[in-house]
Amino acid sequence: MQSQDVAHRHAPVSGPVDVEQAEAALVEHYPRLARLAYLVLPPGLGRSRRVLTAHALVQRALPRGRRQAPAIPAQSLGREADPGYAYLRERVLRTALEAARRRKGRPRLSQLPPLLPQVWGLRLFPRSGGADELALDQRLSALSGPARAAYVLRDLEKLSDAGVRELLENAGVADPGGALASANSVPAQPGLLTSAEFDPCSLQARPTDLMRRRQHTKAALAAAVALAVCGALVALPGGGWGPDGAAAPVYAENPAAEAALDPGRLTRVSPTAWRTSARTDFAVWPARGPLTDDKALLRRALAVWARPGRQVRVSATPGTQTGGPAGPPQLLYAGEVDAAHVVILYDGLRIARYAEPKSGTQGAALDFARIDGATDAGASALVLGRSDGNVRYLLAPWVTKAAQRDLAKPDSAATPLTLAGGVTAPLASSAMRPGTCTSWTALQLTDASGTRLVTDLGELVPAHLTAGRPGSPDEASDAEGLRTWAPFACSLAAERSAGVSSVNAWTYAEQPLPDGSGSGAWVCTRAETWRGAGTLTLAQFRTPGGAVGTAVAKATDVPACGPRDPQVLAGVLWKSAAGSWYLLAAGGSDTASIRATGGVTASGQGPLLAVRARQGVRADLTGTLADGRKVSGLP
Fold first, then answer.
1. What is the spatial distance between Cα 362 and Cα 346, in angstroms, rounded to a whole number?
2. Which of 598, 577, 599, 574 is nearest to 586 (CA)?
3. What pLDDT is recorded for position 4?
4. What value does the CA radius of gyration of the chain take, rounded to a whole number of Å?
5. CB 346 within 8 A of CB 328
6. Which terminus of the chain, N or C, has less C-beta within 10 A?
């Protein structure tokens, strides 16, 4: 096939390209054109948006109307001497490069995903590849758009350097030679470009936040009913907040409910109560902030909690009720955070954060987080606010020091954070940062019992990070824990907005590679939630010398890698430097044997298995523990 491509690379073209010829080429080569667009588009768009945008660019590549497309120079051909394909390739390349140049501005219509078809509530993205594909994706993300295009045209389209320069020049690239020189800095790996990692036509579907979507739908229906019954709301005099702020009208008089709205009845804990209490949870947090005596602000926060109006944006972690408090809640904070007035309340089961703009009446926000039985690390910090990709925390009164640390750099020292009234200086929130993950910021907290790490996952309460065997893990803040987390820190993005209380990482196996190039590390990470359900277990594999690991198996609501059942079994197809494919599988130290069926049939004694395999095969794994119990591989 390669020699055939080379033979046709400089085939001549006579006359302009017929529209029907372009249409036929689009149908025949659609997957290849979509792959080209996906690879050239900026990685900062995110995998899901890149998929939709790639399809949009290809579908809009045909000329409008029935006129003929212009002729394509012979040098630009490279795909079976098909002028229609060459024309479409140039159009797709040009619009993809425009999207790369305009990624910070407003996209053009041609760069937007098509209006139809749409599948609401689903995120689509290509299947994950192995460690080699991930490494190549990271190298390509560091290149400019023209350099990525040059790399793809050279290694995927098999164009000569002269053909690459001419095609880039035709696509509007100012410096084709410089783009090709930059592309040459990345080693040629044409086989990886054809893998599923970069195929926008072979997709996985995952839901968006189902619980939050249902809550928003219910809230919208409730608001519509209230509007129909009560009529339009009367504008507030003077353009300011009324006594109840953005709360909805009172529907019924209820003495208990009204008592919960009285700022004078809020529970306020003594600033020194935590020093003598046997508890280390939110119940012993004192009320802090400069606005704790602002009764009007507190009244609005309580009223909006009880009756959020149509101007209020309500959000909640999965499994968290958003109804009003049963009685007067506890006040934790009231003050100014960036451009908002913020009130944080606690009712024994939930944290509620109310925020309104410091000036004007543009609406309010009400966020809820469930924190069942939170103590120690789980009750050490709360998110006060987010702005410009940064986050501020309110810390527990027993926290004496705070610092920020990059989990991806375990040998770097933590950077101290200033504290003012228990509030930290802003630090970067990796969970809310778009684009390719290259670092992960965690918050390091020190108190009388030691040092621990927590991290923002897009919720009110940060997640506690640990490392070690499930059931008895250690703090991730020590040297061993930091080394364990470093290659897998970016996998924390999979746990965003899921109500996560803690995440543990455990290196459960080390496996010598069949080609003698070293040993790979098997790590399982497990996210526990405040509600119990919705746990997420990832099995990840890192090759020797690899900067990051790759998630190879994923399961939700299973006991594997957890305190109730620490056993875990997973496998991965691995390609050696010589080009041979192997099925690698590993279980915990209690695994007596592993058996593979399906696309690979093999078995072996002990917790490790390595057998020759074919690219793309799928295998089912079954392990037998030392006590005779069977365990299944993570899917």
1. 25
2. 574
3. 36
4. 28
5. no
6. N
Q: Which residues, 6+ apart, have CB-to-CB distance to 220 below 8 Å?
A: none
State the chain's mean pLDDT as an integer: 83
- Where does the pLDDT of residue 160 fall: very low under 50, low under 70, confident under 90, or very high at 90 and above? confident
Which pair of tokens denotes residue 322?
A: 């958003």
Residues 179-206: what's their mean pLDDT? 78
Pairing state of beta strands 364-370 and 312-316? parallel
**10 Å Cβ neighbour count for 56?**
22
Residues 505-537 as b/e (b if ≥16 CB within 10 A, e otherwise) read: bbbbbebebeeeeeebbbbbbbbbbbbeebbbb
Residue 143, token pair as written in the block: 């290149």
Instruction: Map 362-400 to HEC letters.
Output: CCEEEEEEECCCCCHHHHCEEEEEEECCEEEEEECCCCC
SS3 49: helix
Mean pLDDT of all residues in 590-604:
96
Task: Report residue 75's pLDDT band, with 50, 70 and 90 as the boundaries.
Answer: very low
- Helix then strand then coil, in percent of the chain rounded to 5, is 30, 30, 40
How much is the pLDDT for 66?
Answer: 46
Q: Which of 222, 216, 302 is nearest to 259 (CA)?
A: 302
In this prediction, residues 132-161 reach a mean pLDDT of: 84
The span from the CA of 199 to the CA of 125, in Å, is 9
343-380: pLDDT as tens digits: 999 999 999 999 999 886 678 999 999 998 899 999 99
Q: Which residue has the tokens 């619980």?
A: 211
Q: Do you know the residue count of the chain?
A: 635
Largest CA distance in the chain: 90
46: left (phi over 0), alpha (psi -120 to 50) or beta: left
Counting runs of H as helices and runs of E as strands, what totals does the chain give?
Answer: 14, 29
Rounded to two decimals, the pTM is 0.63
Mean pLDDT of 549-578: 94
Give me the pLDDT at residue 218, please.
56
DSSP-derived letter for residue 291 is T
Q: What does the alpha-carbon distance between residue 211 and residue 316 come to, in Å, rounded to a whole number? A: 9
- Please give the Cα distance from 10 to 81 (Å, whole number): 8
Q: Please give the average per-residue pLDDT across 577-590, as a whole number.
A: 95
Lowest mean pLDDT among 36-40, 364-368, 527-531: 36-40
> Please, what's the b/e burial string for 126-145 (b: 16 or more CB within 10 A of its CB; e: otherwise)?
beebbbbbbbbbeebeebbb
Residue 609 dihedral angles phi and psi, to the nearest 5°? -145, 135
Residue where the block lists tokens 């009720």: 321
Bond into 328 cis (ω within 30): no
Residues 6+ apart with CB under 8 A from 115: none
